[in-house]
Amino acid sequence: MVTQPRLLLHRDGFIDNAYDRRSTSSPRHFKRILYSISLLKDFKNMGSDSADHSSDEAQYYDCDVSNVLLALEKAARMPGFYDVDLSEVYDMEYWSAYQKVYGGDKDPFEDNEGGRVVDATWANCLTKSTYEISRIKKMLQALLNVANDLEAEFKSSKERIVAAKRSKGIKSLPDDLLAKIFQIAVWEEDYDGAKQAIRLASVSRRFRTVALEKRGLWTTLFSLSSRNQLEALIPRAGPSEGFDVFIHYDFDKKERGAGLKPFIDVCRPILSRWKTLTLTQEYYEFLGPKRSSVEDALEELHNLFVNDGLHLSTLEELNVHGETSDRHKDGKSDICAWAANLRAVRCDYFLPSTTRLSSVSTLIVSQGISGGSSGSPLNVLLDFLRMVPNLSFFQLEANDASMEFVNETLPVVECAAIISFKLQLDNFFLLSFPVEDSCIAALMNALRLPSLEEFSVDVKASSSGRTEGECAEWSQRTGNLMCALLPDHISMSTRMKSMFFKLWRSGSVWGDEEKVSPDARTSHIPLDRILHFRTVALSSFVQVLFTQEAGDADPARISEGRLRELRFVECKNMTSAHLKGTVDSLESLGVWDDIERIVVKKCEQLVYNEIVEVVGEKRLQYISH
Asked: Where does the F-box domain start and stop, copy by copy (predicted)?
């Protein structure tokens, strides 16, 4: 048998190796302490190798297993605990049970040909060691169960301490600050804001007093609330607060005679104080031929308001949330007839029929832009844009933008007042993106923005290639996309001041795509398309390279360029080598010397000294957070 290390029991219950005395603060000493836990049975007189099974059982029965707990607690207090690889320390080869059974120089099964029984002494040792391991597992399981219970007790106590501190902290807040916190909590609940206000008022006497004095907490009205609830809420808002109204439309209830009239009747005295109106509809999984849409709700509202001569004179914001399956139809919901002072409109998968909304300055639309001919979503969108002539901010969240546009050429629509345009392309398939005649190209060619100063594009890519060839094709298509986004009437505009382009991918793992080198993909930025923008900000999960659209760079056109500032924002995979490649591409096109400032913000892989080596300290503005 292999000779075991001579072990000495210290007065404090620890075990040390007699032939390896080093500083007790060393990692090796700490490992020995942990190792000693598995060897406790050796110094507890648990029996000799020659003892029979019954005497071994008796010695185990008499042993004081509480020392195991003491050793564990002392080991857990050691300062270097988290520096130790426990799986390495507790490897089975370090266990005395393993050494007793398998630690010899000779394989016990070496001469066992023909099924001859192995050495009886070794077999007895194997049996005893098996029992030892069973008892060790029993002790460890008992310790683990109690440790879990104790950990739960500690967690409960900590939560009570945190709750007490929070309670004490809230008590120290002045009433006006507490009221502002309540207001934020109510706003976050949208249509359930009134329920949140009631919950807050039910916490304590002080909370109730603060909540009732804060009129703005009671201004959320929901069409599915009962008449009694609405009549109780409205007086709490006071005589002058504006109301945020949420109407949920169920066409089936309308068919049964339960439309919006009861809700409007309750609100009739305060209609002139409606500040925002949000319209949603019941979702139908299975669509019938007579399936309604939010247009029906708008028509009912139109009839209720116009027929009775009612006007929402202070309504500033209208939100209409449709479904992707909604069918557009020429309805009779002339919004301007009852909400002439709107400032902002948001429409999800639905655009209402209306006359000119001259007061609207902000429009946010979520819409699929592929499909049919005369009634295609793009035509409907362009028609609606004609109805908002004073629009200054336009945000479009476009789905299916990478698909081919198969219709005739769209009519040109000029939106002369738009200054800021934010475009979001969801689930964009670059590999299937047609170089010409795409939906997004058709939209950008038809949409004329002569006053545009700020253009922001957010592309959520759905695929980036599973092979080197596909990755190269994908990279080429990024340049094609930029050309589609920036036709001549935008790229040559002298009004444009800045552009922000973000390219990111949906999901963190793409299966086979992760097997391709990250450097196999690049985002191509055609320099010709951005030369007249003074500031360009880029955010990309792949390396950025500036390219020439066709042929050699035109020195005359480059000299007329106004590009002076480049910003790299949240390029989480960009390294100093990638940044150097970007700079080299600018130098090869002859524009690097004209760049006055490079801003690097929240790029995880880049550090200041490396950036300075690439771009120089004079140009650099570095923002790490």
From this structure: 167-221
d(CA 313, CA 311): 5
Distances from the Cα of 232 to the Cα of 208, 236, 269, angstroms:
15, 7, 14
Radius of gyration of the chain (CA): 37
Sign of the four-CA dihedral 118, 124, 127, 129:
negative
- Let me know if 9 is exposed, middle or buried by CB neighbors in 10 A (0-12, 13-18, 19+): middle
String of DSSP letters for 407-439? SPPPPPEE-TT--EEEEEEEEE-STT--SSSBH
Measured torsion, CA atoms of residues 280, 281, 284, 285, in degrees rounded to the nearest 10: 0
Positions of E strands within 4-124: 7-9, 15-17
Ordered alpha helix ranges (H), 486-592: 488-491, 555-559, 576-588
Report the distance separating Cα 510 and Cα 466, nearest Å: 9
Query: End-to-end CA distance of the chain, in Å?
Result: 62
Number of Cβ within a 10 Å radius of residue 457: 19
Check residue 535 and report its DSSP letter. Answer: E
Q: How far apart are CA 602 and CA 592, in angstroms?
A: 23
20 pLDDT above the threshold of 70: no
pLDDT per position as a tens digit, 287-313? 554 556 788 888 889 999 998 899 999
The two structure tokens encoding residue 523: 């985002």
Token pair in block for residue 516: 């391709």
- Paired with 249 in beta bridges are 281
Count of other CB atoms within 10 angstroms of residue 110: 8
- pLDDT for 467-525, tens place per residue? 889 999 999 999 999 999 999 999 999 899 999 999 998 764 455 556 677 788 999 99
Predicted pLDDT of residue 14:
36
d(CA 118, CA 120): 6
Q: Mean pLDDT, to the nearest integer, of 171-185?
A: 92
Residue pair 544/496 in contact by the 8 Å Cβ criterion: no
b/e per residue 113-126 (b: at least 16 CB within 10 A): eeeeeeeeebeebe
- H/E run at residue 394: strand 393-399
Residue ranges of the domains in the chain? 97-103+122-172
Contact 221, 248 (CB under 8 A): no
H/E element holding 347?
A: strand 344-348
pLDDT at 167: 65
